[in-house]
């Protein structure tokens, strides 16, 4: 048992670093683009929107991060599960290792973003806006973004697992599932959307008042965890005894 | 750790096609098995079950008395080497080997480097740039250096040229002597590999046709060589599976065991008696209707 737990940590470690390695290009290019845009272009003109103005690096890298997580998630089963099983690792150890790696990757991504945003604040302070509202605590931003990146990875993982197991029909079933997951997360966490669900939680207001002791903040977290649990269960059930292609 | 493998009534179906049909086999530890069969006989399917790539649709596989599938302890004792598609492997040979080594408990890195040298593999070349023969050799290195208690080679040698194959067979025998383990070599190149096998398993259309020690198999028949008319007279009424004729000399393969009296008679007639070859037996046993083994 002890040996097996060491093994999924080893898998997690290797997967995290491999995927982090792939991401250096993406982060480098986004950072370069961010700096050059900031130096050469007036954002207000570019966006043609006084309000949007400039919202900082975290906002800027959010979508590239999400797309990266989605794509890497899709690759996980065909690339990693297949390789690990062929190397004599159980599907179970791969699964556990991959969950840890995806979480670690999300957190490391956000640490990088927060550090760069911190430097940005030192160089040229901007009014910092994320979808959690103005003045949300950095810790909360870190936590919620990490959770969201993780969910994008899960969405990709679902699609990859569905396709690997059921090919075409897998896509038909699992893509809507993944989209629902992402849509639900957006509903829960997006401050821009005035959805009924959002109004119900009125997260935006709560956060700008910064009352974490109010229990309502736990509702989006709670629902997120339930969604994550369902996704993880589905992925595990899909690949638990899957035939690995030669 | 070595391993006993018990395959019990295992079936695998791909849609309507029976890839394996109630296969039962017991494989003892530390022996070298030849898994022989024509294309599509079910060799790769059987080996991929032993590598836990898939579960059988029916039946069970146990190793050391425990169910094999998804057993972490057992899975890491198995190495299955086959003609992998490596054209998307951008890693260099060295890194590729190191990544695998990390998950193989018995991997011997020093021996791997020795083999890399012997097979002339370039360590700093990306794997996808290797020629087919070199990719086969790389697979062979992994299979041998992993030193897994259950090591399976699925026609890994078909990409290698003849001298490389010879080198591989030699390494395999030597390393098996140093570190005895259960090895299963699947092949249809029977004639050049038969000396490697301790036991032969012949699969045909998803079924086990034969599973016996090679020396026992070879005693099942004999080749009779000599003057054509004498040979004809001698083998009359016997079960003939292969005939070759060169000028006045004829060689006939029979699969009836010869009695002492027959052997004596052959000696008197000046006929030469040799063992039947595994290759001929294989061809004979897996002959399709309408196809000829004996020409």
From TrEMBL, chain A:
Keywords per UniProt = Membrane, Transmembrane, Transmembrane helix
Which superkingdom, per the lineage? Answer: Bacteria
Q: Which residues cross the membrane?
A: 20-41, 67-85, 97-119, 139-159, 171-189, 215-235
Q: What is this protein called?
A: Uncharacterized protein
Please tell me the species this chain comes from: Jeotgalibacillus alimentarius
From TrEMBL, chain B:
Q: Which UniProt keywords apply?
A: ATP-binding, Nucleotide-binding
Query: Its domain of life?
Result: Bacteria
One GO MF term on file is: ATP binding
Please state what the protein is called. Answer: ABC transporter-like protein
PANTHER family named among the record's database cross-references: ABC TRANSPORTER, ATP-BINDING PROTEIN, SKFA PEPTIDE EXPORT ATP-BINDING PROTEIN SKFE
Provide the species name. Answer: Jeotgalibacillus alimentarius
Q: Which InterPro entries does the record associate with it?
A: AAA+_ATPase, ABC_transporter-like_ATP-bd, P-loop_NTPase
PROSITE patterns recorded:
ABC_TRANSPORTER_2 (PS50893)
Q: Does the keyword Transport apply?
A: no
> Residue ranges of the ABC transporter domain?
5-230
> Known Pfam families for this protein?
ABC_tran (PF00005)
The record's annotation in SUPFAM superfamilies points to: P-loop containing nucleoside triphosphate hydrolases
């Amino acid at each position: 048992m002890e040996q097996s737990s060491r093994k999924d940590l080893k898998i997690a470690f290797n997967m995290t670093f491999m995927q982090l390695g792939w991401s250096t290009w993406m982060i480098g290019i986004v950072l370069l683009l961010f700096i050059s845009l900031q130096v050469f272009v007036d954002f207000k003109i570019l966006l043609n929107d006084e309000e949007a103005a400039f919202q900082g690096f975290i906002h800027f890298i959010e979508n590239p991060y999400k797309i990266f997580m989605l794509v890497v998630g899709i690759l996980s089963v065909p690339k990693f599960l297949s390789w690990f099983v062929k190397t004599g690792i159980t599907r179970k150890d791969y699964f556990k290792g991959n969950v840890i790696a995806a979480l670690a990757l999300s957190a490391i991504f956000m640490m990088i973003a927060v550090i760069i945003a911190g430097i940005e604040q030192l160089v040229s302070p901007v009014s910092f806006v994320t979808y959690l509202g103005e003045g949300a605590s950095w810790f909360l931003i870190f936590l919620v973004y990490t959770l969201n990146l993780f969910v994008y990875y899960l969405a990709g993982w679902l699609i990859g697992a569905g396709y690997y197991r059921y090919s075409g029909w897998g896509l038909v079933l699992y893509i809507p599932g993944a989209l629902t997951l992402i849509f639900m997360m957006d509903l829960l966490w997006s401050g821009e959307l005035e959805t009924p669900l959002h109004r119900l939680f009125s997260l935006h207001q709560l956060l700008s008042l910064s009352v974490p002791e109010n229990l309502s903040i736990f509702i989006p977290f709670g629902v997120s965890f339930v969604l994550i649990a369902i996704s993880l269960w589905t992925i595990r059930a899909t690949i638990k005894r899957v035939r690995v292609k030669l | 750790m070595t391993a006993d493998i018990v395959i019990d009534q295992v079936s695998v179906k791909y849609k309507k096609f029976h890839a394996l049909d109630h296969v039962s086999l017991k494989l003892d530890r530390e022996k070298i098995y030849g898994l022989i069969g024509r294309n599509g006989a079910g060799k790769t399917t059987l080996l991929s079950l032993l590598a836990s790539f898939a579960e059988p649709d029916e039946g069970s596989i146990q190793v050391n008395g425990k169910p094999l599938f998804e057993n972490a302890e057992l899975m890491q004792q198995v190495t299955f080497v086959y003609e992998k598609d490596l054209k998307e492997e951008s890693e260099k040979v060295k890194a590729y080997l190191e990544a695998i080594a990390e998950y193989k408990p018995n991997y011997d890195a020093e021996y791997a480097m020795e083999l890399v040298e012997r097979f002339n593999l370039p360590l700093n070349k990306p794997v996808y740039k290797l020629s087919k023969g070199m990719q086969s050799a790389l697979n062979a290195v992994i299979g041998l250096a992993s030193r897994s208690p259950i090591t399976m080679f699925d026609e890994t040698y078909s990409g290698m040229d003849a001298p490389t194959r010879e080198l591989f067979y030699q390494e395999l025998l030597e390393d098996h002597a140093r570190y005895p383990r259960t090895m299963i070599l699947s092949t249809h190149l029977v004639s050049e590999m038969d000396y490697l096998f301790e036991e032969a398993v012949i699969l045909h259309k998803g079924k086990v046709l034969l599973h016996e020690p090679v020396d026992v198999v070879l005693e099942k028949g004999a080749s009779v060589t000599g003057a054509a008319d004498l040979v004809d007279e001698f083998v009359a009424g016997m079960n003939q599976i292969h005939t070759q004729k060169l000028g006045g000399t004829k060689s006939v393969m029979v699969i009836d065991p010869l009695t002492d009296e027959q052997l004596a008679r052959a000696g008197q007639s000046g006929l030469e008696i040799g063992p039947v070859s595994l290759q001929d037996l294989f061809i004979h046993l897996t002959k399709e209707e309408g196809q000829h083994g004996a020409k």
